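Tokens for chain A. Residues wanted.
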């Protein structure tokens, strides 16, 4: 099939060395066909992940260790994020093959064409990791869950990149608004630091605002609804999704909020907000 042939040519350009080249011709062909069908079957899903121990009967080849394969839309941070997640499971990565290809899919997500990525409207990342040892079934399941979660975080961070930058611009405005309270030196230092962040010296991962409100007569800290961005998007995993009385916070954290380092809203004098990144 011409589409598989186009995929094979682009895929093999990335197989410059490593264990894949040690495979026989039939095994290598079986591997390429296997990962092509894996990418094809992703369809309209944003990501597909499989963690498996290849066998001749099921995949047409074998490997020294467990294999991880991923098909997803191309985004920044993918390889480093996945590698880090794998290493967090006490497993080494022996080799990675990760071509980026252009694709045209039909309305059902089937691949109609595979093209070089450079001028493609849609770019996809196809990733093949060979690990340093064979994982048990429970280990494979845990690793699969971890990689899916990590890729979800990467997607949120990339999608929210511009809003994350905008949050820093708002913080700069807040710093300038504090000129009557803080010295010129402190204002200049804080503004310079925030500008340094904007100059791509920092990877924006998440942002969330918190507010202090009165709950049952007690000052309490809670998440500002809708303020979460990146990996802090939403509030289901926040310890402050339900407001927590300041009296119940650790001393150091409570003092931070009670000290006035948070900014006071001119429109809501009963509230003070702080941000986390």
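Reply:
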């Amino acid at each position: 099939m011409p589409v598989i042939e186009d995929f094979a040519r682009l895929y093999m350009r990335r197989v410059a060395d490593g264990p894949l080249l040690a495979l026989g011709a039939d095994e290598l062909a079986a591997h390429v066909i296997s990962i092509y069908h894996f990418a094809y079957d992703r369809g309209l899903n944003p990501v597909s992940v499989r963690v498996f121990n290849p066998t001749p009967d099921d995949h047409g080849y074998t490997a020294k260790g467990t294999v991880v394969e991923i098909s997803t839309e191309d985004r920044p941070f993918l390889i480093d994020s996945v590698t880090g997640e794998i290493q967090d499971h006490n497993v080494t990565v022996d080799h990675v093959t990760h071509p980026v290809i252009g694709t045209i899919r039909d309305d059902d997500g089937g691949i109609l064409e595979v093209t070089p990525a450079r001028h493609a409207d849609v770019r996809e990342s196809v990733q093949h990791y060979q690990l340093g040892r064979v994982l048990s079934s429970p280990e494979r399941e845990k690793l699969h869950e971890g990689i899916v979660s990590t890729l979800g975080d990467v997607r949120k961070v990339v999608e929210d990149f511009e809003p994350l930058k905008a949050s820093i611009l708002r913080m700069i405005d807040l710093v300038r608004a504090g000129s009557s309270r803080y010295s010129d030196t402190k204002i200049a230092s804080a503004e310079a630091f925030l500008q340094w962040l904007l100059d791509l010296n920092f990877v924006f991962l998440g942002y969330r605002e918190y507010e202090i409100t009165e709950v049952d007569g007690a000052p309490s800290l809670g998440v500002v609804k809708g303020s979460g961005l990146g990996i802090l998007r939403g509030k289901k995993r926040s310890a402050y999704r339900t407001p927590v009385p300041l009296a119940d916070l650790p001393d150091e954290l409570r003092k931070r909020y009670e000290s006035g380092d948070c900014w006071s809203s001119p429109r809501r004098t009963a509230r003070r907000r702080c941000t986390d990144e």
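The mean pLDDT is 89. Residues 205-276 form one domain.
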